[in-house]
Specification:
single chain; binds D-malate; 11 helices; eight-stranded mixed β-sheet; alpha/beta; globular
Length: 264
């Protein structure tokens, strides 16, 4: 369904009933990356998977935006859907937005899942890469992000064993609106550093890494988990960056066990 918030239409899929669980996707993806989580959890939870502004079926920003805008959209969405409190999960870029949400409205969240993400802001080199990506997106369209990301999302072995997954990902990433991805690249490039936030996180937190993730490697994730009081940290073997889709059984098991403790 489409929800009118903050002057735009945001697409959101809602499945199941129970404690709300909001899952925020990564770049350059949309809510479909959470399909297997929504299916597995919707018999006990109200699983809410939005398309972030400018991605998937949500409206594209007409001016440049900061990363905080994505967080403001989620808070407005919660208000619109009458959700006072929810469990929150963020994958990669979705994790950056989860940090912004925890900064803005920590009282609205029951628990936090950080998958394949990092708290540090971009350094000089990473910023430059994002600006180059924005130019490539402008020149070549969504294929620029698809071609850069696909080899990093799943391992070569998974690609051989599950060619249909690689095909689906290629299709999803290639169909994103390039302008939306440009806005996302620049918003990520100039996002706040969230390292100082970690010590203040007071909700139960689950941190999930992929053993072979080249974007947010396990040592980066472990360092982050160590700074969040009581966080549990898990590495999924033989997985790259996109753990929810590459290893859904392992990911869902961790998620379900965690949610049972959060919402009991
Ligand atoms: C993502 O998966 O969302 C991206 O890898 C995030 C990033 O580029 O920092």
């Amino acid at each position: 369904m489409k929800v009118n918030i903050n002057g735009i239409h945001l697409f959101v899929e809602e499945k199941g009933q129970g404690t709300p669980l909001i899952l925020l996707h990564g770049f350059p993806l949309d809510h479909r990356m959470w399909r297997l989580q929504a299916e597995a959890l919707s018999n006990g939870y109200r699983v809410i998977t939005p398309d972030l502004r400018g991605m998937g079926q949500s409206d594209i920003p007409v001016t440049n935006i900061a990363l905080d805008q994505y967080a403001d959209d989620i808070l407005a969405l919660m208000d619109k859907m009458n959700i006072q409190k929810a469990a929150l999960g963020g994958f990669s870029m979705g994790g950056y937005i989860a940090f912004a949400l925890l900064r803005k409205a920590p009282e609205r969240f029951l628990g936090l899942v950080l998958a394949n993400t990092r708290p540090e802001a971009d350094g000089q080199e990473a910023r430059k890469n994002r600006m180059n990506m924005a130019v490539s997106l402008y020149d070549k369209g969504a294929a620029a992000a698809r071609d850069a990301m696909l080899p990093k999302l799943i391992t070569e072995q998974t690609k051989q064993e599950q060619p249909q997954l690689a095909g689906e990902l290629s299709e999803i990433m290639g169909s994103m609106p390039p302008e939306g991805l440009i806005h996302a690249s620049l918003a990520m490039a100039f996002r706040d550093d969230s390292v100082d936030l970690l010590a203040s996180i007071a909700v139960p937190t689950l941190v999930i890494a992929g053993e072979q993730d080249p974007i947010t490697p396990p040592d980066v994730m472990k360092k982050m988990a160590d700074q969040i009081k009581g966080a549990s940290y898990h590495v999924i073997p033989a997985a790259s960056h996109l753990t929810p889709q590459e290893k859904p059984e392992a990911f869902n098991k961790l998620l379900l066990e965690f949610l049972q403790t959060v919402t009991a």
